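Submission checklist for the structure archive. All mandatory fields must be present; incomplete records are returned to the submitter.

[x] Identifier: Sorting nexin-30
[x] Organism: Salvator merianae
[x] Residue count: 443
[x] Sequence attached
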Amino acid sequence: MSAATAGGGGAGTPKALPSSGPKSLREMPHPLAASSSEEAGAELSPSPDLQLPRSIAEKDLSLPNGTPVDTSSPASSSSLLNRLQLDDDLDGEMRDLFVTVDDPKKHVCTMETYITYRVTTKTTRAEFDLPEYSMRRRYQDFDWLRNKLEESQPTHLIPPLPEKFVVKGVVDRFSEEFVETRRKALDKFLKRIADHPVLSFNEHFHVFLTAKDLNAYKKQGMALLSKMGESVKYVTGSYKLRSRPLEFAAIGEYLDTFSLKLGTIDRIAQRIIKEEIEYLVELREYGPIYSTWSALERDLSEPLEGVSACIGNCCTALEELSEDMTEDFLPVLREYILYSESMKNVLKKRDQVQAEYEAKLEAVVLKREDRPKVPTEVERCQDRVECFNADLKADMDRWQSNKRQDFRQLLMGMADKNIQYYEKCLTAWESIIPLLQDKPETK
């Protein structure tokens, strides 16, 4: 089910957002959707007890990334809205940016020890000078990229990174297992950005993929923040949202339940793996006893050796199952737990912007004295709310689609691994039956 469906409207033709109060405003046209109002999505009903003139000034507007928009003509094919409309059309044949993370290497220096990963980029996009790049990046570089994406694209859902220091159950962060688990997570992080119709065009992402000296860009700090990022970052907490629109309230409730369920599954799965590891320790002590016993029993020697070998095979199968759970199952759960938290943060930002808009609009209405137009500051604030709504709904739909695909693959893999485990155990135990049944009697 898509986010829009969950909120009570279809993905193709979203319903108008409910008013956050008992009375509604007259419809306000989105400044960015002057020529594509039918495709752009729902209208905003921002606050109760306020009436707003339909006339909205269409100047000095900008997209969330700071790009000026000429609302007197249809948006170009590269505009934010059109990119979002192409969201459902992205497939393997249309992709023009491919990123992979591989070849982890350990670096031991005087002051620190760290791991770097090779980031390989292949593209046909015109904004890249070369068709292929290969750079080495460490975890803190990925962290820098994510922070920059959050700052410059505050209306979008930014994919999560794996936990920085400790993944539960792994002590050595330089162990082969830990590094490989992190590599897979970093690879998925970049692939999700590369597949996004807006984030993949972000200037910080371009720098991350192509810059030989990334530290020079890191030192610029806040200098490259977009206008939208600045405005959202510094929204004060003095504005209080009257009521979150029903569609976004439904998304928030879903995310709360979703993260709770995944958190419970994660905790139980970790306990199961812990118990499997403890069971493995017992089995490894249990099997050899039959082998040593066989030396004392001439007539039972072969069956006892068979039991010992059978238990050893079961140990190997259980060890493989536990490793698969640790390396493949748990990381996906944790990624989506972090994903839900990221989405909640975007919802909070959206609420802050709407609360700011409602407060400013109310102040204008109280002081307007029949003026025909709303001040530009309020128009821009309303535009930010509309951008948040459109971007968040598009990203929620994309997230739901990725989630369905990821969990189908995850559960199919889990079923397959369990089937293999029980088949190996069954084969092992069946192998000793002939040793017990076909032993000829000694005359």
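[x] Structure attached
Curator remark: The two ends are 73 Å apart (CA to CA). The longest strand covers residues 97-108.
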